[in-house]
Write a structure and sequence with these properties.
Length: 386
C-alpha cells in the first residue's frame, strides 16, 4: 500500500485495491514517512514502551507467588490471599510493597486463585410446576388485578388482566370495584371467544379463591372453572415468579397505555384498552401456532352455582419447619423431610383425597409424591347471591 501511494496512486484507489479503509492507508503511509520500505518498522504493535514503566518486577512477582505457596501450606490461620501476602511482606521488612489490588492482579495473572465462580443453572421450563403445561400439552391462563387506577375527575378503577402462557392471548377489563360476579363475566367472555384452557391460575385474592374466614370455601370463580372442566391453580402466597407472565403484561399495559393516553372515563379507557389488546394479539399471533389447542366452550353452557363442586383444584404452597402446609382452612402434614419447600397440592373432590407433590426448580422433572391425605369436603350449597 505504501509503495502504491508513493508511485502516485490516490489513497482511495489504493484502499479499494487492497480492500481496506482510506484511513488505514493513510495510517501506514504516515508510519513509513520518507524511509526506505526495508528499513521501516511496519509490524502491528501498540504505542508506547513494550513494558509499562510501573509494572511490578518479575522478582517481586515470583516472591509473591512463593509466599502464597508457603502461607497455604504453613499458615496457622490458613489464609493466603492478597491481604495475608501483603501482611507477610510487611513483616519481612520489604520496601515498596505492592498494594492489595496489585497483589490480587498478580495472582490472577498467574492463575494462582481458588475462587469458584457462581454456577449458572438453566431456568426451568415454562409452567414447570404443572407437568402437562411444561410438556406443551395444555394451556394455562393467568389472571391478576391492577388496583386503584384513578381517572382525573373520575372514578377509581380496577383492571382485570389475563394472558395465556404459551399463546400470549392477552385481555384487560376495566371495572369500578372488583368483585367475583364481574370477574366471572369477564372469564366467560374470554373463554367463549378463545376457547377453554387446561388450567386457570390466580393469586389468593378472595375474589378468585373465595372467603378466607370459612374453611372448605370454594368461591364463585373456582366453581366456574370446575363447571367448565378447567383446573383452577392458586399461586403460593408471597412467592415471586409464578405470576410473572401476567405481571409482565400488567407493567406493559401501564407503561404503554395508562401513562401515555389520557382517558376521561371508564368507557374511554376500555375502548383504548381494547385497541391495545387487539394490537398486542396481532403481534403475538405466531405464538398461537405453537400453543396447545383450546377446546371450544359448550354453546349451551349454563352456570349453576348451586351444583355440587366436582373436579380438581391445585394449590401451590410452601411447607413450614415441621413439613406442614395450610389450605382450605386446614393444616395438613406433607413430610417432615420436606421443610420450607414448595409443594403442589392436588385436591380431588371426586376421590375425596389431597395429593402432595414435591417441587424443586433445580430438578423440575422430578416431582415425587410426598403424601396423600383423605379430604371429605362438606357438600354445602353456595352461600353467595346467584
Amino acid at each position: 500500500m505504501v509503495q502504491a501511494v508513493r508511485d502516485g496512486a490516490s489513497v482511495r484507489a489504493v484502499a479499494r485495491r487492497f480492500g481496506v479503509s482510506p484511513s488505514t492507508v493513510v495510517n501506514w503511509t504516515h508510519r513509513a514517512t520518507d524511509k526506505r520500505l526495508d528499513r521501516c518498522v511496519l509490524d502491528d504493535r501498540r504505542r508506547g514502551a513494550p513494558r509499562p514503566w510501573n509494572r511490578t518486577s518479575a522478582s517481586v512477582e515470583r516472591r509473591i507467588l512463593r509466599l502464597r505457596r508457603e502461607l497455604r501450606e504453613h499458615s496457622v490461620l490458613g489464609e493466603y490471599g492478597a491481604d495475608a501476602i501483603g501482611q507477610a511482606l510487611r513483616e519481612a521488612g520489604c520496601g515498596n510493597i505492592p498494594s492489595r489490588a496489585t497483589i490480587a492482579r498478580i495472582l490472577v495473572r498467574h492463575g494462582a486463585t481458588d475462587g469458584h465462580r457462581r454456577v449458572r443453572r438453566p431456568p426451568p421450563p415454562t409452567g414447570w410446576y404443572l407437568p402437562a403445561v411444561a410438556a406443551g400439552q395444555a394451556e394455562l391462563d393467568c389472571f391478576d388485578f391492577v388496583e386503584d387506577l384513578k381517572i382525573a375527575d373520575g372514578p377509581l378503577l380496577d383492571l382485570l388482566t389475563a394472558t395465556s402462557l404459551h399463546g400470549g392471548l392477552v385481555d384487560a377489563w376495566a371495572m369500578a370495584g372488583r368483585n367475583a360476579k364481574s370477574t366471572v363475566n369477564c372469564l366467560l367472555q374470554r373463554w367463549q371467544r378463545d376457547g377453554l384452557p387446561g388450567y386457570a391460575q390466580f393469586d389468593n385474592d378472595t375474589v378468585f379463591q373465595g372467603a378466607h374466614q370459612f374453611p372448605d370455601a370454594i368461591g364463585r370463580v373456582s366453581r366456574l372453572c370446575l363447571a367448565l372442566g378447567v383446573i383452577p391453580v392458586f399461586a403460593p402466597p408471597r412467592e415471586p415468579g409464578f405470576q410473572n407472565p401476567v405481571e409482565a403484561f400488567n407493567g406493559l399495559w401501564q407503561a404503554k397505555l395508562w401513562q401515555r393516553v389520557h382517558c376521561s372515563s371508564q368507557r374511554h379507557l376500555q375502548a383504548q384498552s381494547d385497541r391495545y389488546v387487539a394490537a398486542h394479539r396481532a403481534r403475538s399471533a405466531r405464538r398461537r401456532d405453537r400453543a396447545p389447542q383450546r377446546p371450544a366452550m359448550p354453546q349451551r353452557f349454563r352456570f349453576d352455582l348451586r351444583a355440587p363442586a366436582r373436579g380438581m383444584l391445585i394449590y401451590l404452597r410452601r411447607t413450614d419447619a415441621a413439613g406442614r402446609t395450610q389450605l382450605l382452612g386446614h393444616s395438613f402434614q406433607v413430610s417432615a423431610q420436606w421443610p420450607h419447600r414448595l409443594v403442589r397440592c392436588e385436591v380431588d373432590l371426586r376421590a375425596h383425597r389431597i395429593r402432595f407433590y414435591g417441587l424443586r426448580r433445580r430438578a423440575p422433572d422430578q416431582q415425587p409424591l410426598l403424601n396423600s391425605a383423605a379430604y371429605h369436603r362438606p357438600d354445602k350449597p353456595f352461600a353467595g347471591d346467584p
